[in-house]
């Protein structure tokens, strides 16, 4: 289980974006996360991927409370969680070939003996041809690059995957292909997935459970509405 308990996080002192958020992503299931723009979905994705330190609350990975975030995140916990962003072009080094992009997490862990076999296996699984592997990001489409980004996220076999609007820029067939690969991970490897999307129809088809974040707060006198947690109509 990847879980966040009592998460408070934000950017400007005194105005948290998440204000006491609880969420649980069990192994082998897809939890959908929906909600209007600006309500904190990507913030939650960064906190659960250990890229952003919450102001309060805790993140646990398979029962172990995370003790550090960003560079201070324990390697074992950091590699347990893969992240795929909405904008693949902002998520890769433009100088790298797709091969190197996919290989990067293994390279960073010093697992060079696995590199070529694992990259070939992932590329085939994600439908990235040998010819595409030698190209750089500006020489491929968004969909082809996002396939490589999903391959990169899966390279070290994470136990959890956070997909932050992974398919928002993609056509229907690429969306279906990527969702199919993620579903196979869930079924065959027991991966737990947080699928963030504006597309409620996609989430209803894809996720076992959908959590909806509240809209941005509206001030009504002294009543400060709860913000950033699941609404009671969680399904
Ligand atoms: N780096 C940042 N610095 C300051 N404020 C930020 C930063 N990133 C996000 N915010 C603010 O935090 C709030 C939540 O942003 P976040 O990106 O988490 O929302 P979101 O639900 O993912 O939105 P969207 O659906 O549009 O992607 C927004 O008000 C946003 O302006």
Automatic annotation (TrEMBL):
GO terms for biological process: transmembrane transport. Transmembrane segments: none annotated. GO terms for molecular function: ATP binding; ATP hydrolysis activity. Gene3D superfamilies: P-loop containing nucleotide triphosphate hydrolases. Residues 2-235 form the ABC transporter domain. Keywords: ATP-binding, Nucleotide-binding, Transport. The keyword Nucleotide-binding applies. Belongs to the ABC transporter superfamily. PANTHER family: D,D-DIPEPTIDE TRANSPORT ATP-BINDING PROTEIN DDPF-RELATED (PTHR43776:SF7), TRANSPORT ATP-BINDING PROTEIN (PTHR43776). This is Peptide/nickel transport system ATP-binding protein.
């Amino acid at each position: 289980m990847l879980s966040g308990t009592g998460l408070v996080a934000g950017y400007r002192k005194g105005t948290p974006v998440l204000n006491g958020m609880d969420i649980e992503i069990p192994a082998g299931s897809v939890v959908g996360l929906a909600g209007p723009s600006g309500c904190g979905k990507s913030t939650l994705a960064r906190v659960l991927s250990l890229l952003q330190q919450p102001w309060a609350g805790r993140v646990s990975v398979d029962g172990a409370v995370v003790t550090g975030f960003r560079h201070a995140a324990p390697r074992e916990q950091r590699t347990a969680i893969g992240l795929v962003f909405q904008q693949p072009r902002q998520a890769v080094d433009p100088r790298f070939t797709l091969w190197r992009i996919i290989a990067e997490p293994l390279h960073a862990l010093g697992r060079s003996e696995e590199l070529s076999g694992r990259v070939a296996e992932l590329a085939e699984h994600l439908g990235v041809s040998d010819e595409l592997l030698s190209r750089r990001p500006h020489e491929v489409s968004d969909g082809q690059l996002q396939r490589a980004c999903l391959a990169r996220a899966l390279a070290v076999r994470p136990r959890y995957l956070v997909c932050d609007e992974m398919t928002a820029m993609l056509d229907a067939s690429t969306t279906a292909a990527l969702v199919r690969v993620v579903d196979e991970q869930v079924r065959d490897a027991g991966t737990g997935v947080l699928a963030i999307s504006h597309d409620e129809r996609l989430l209803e088809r894809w996720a076992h459970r959908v959590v909806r974040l509240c809209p941005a707060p509206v001030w009504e006198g002294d009543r400060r509405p709860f913000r950033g947690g699941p609404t009671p109509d969680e399904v």
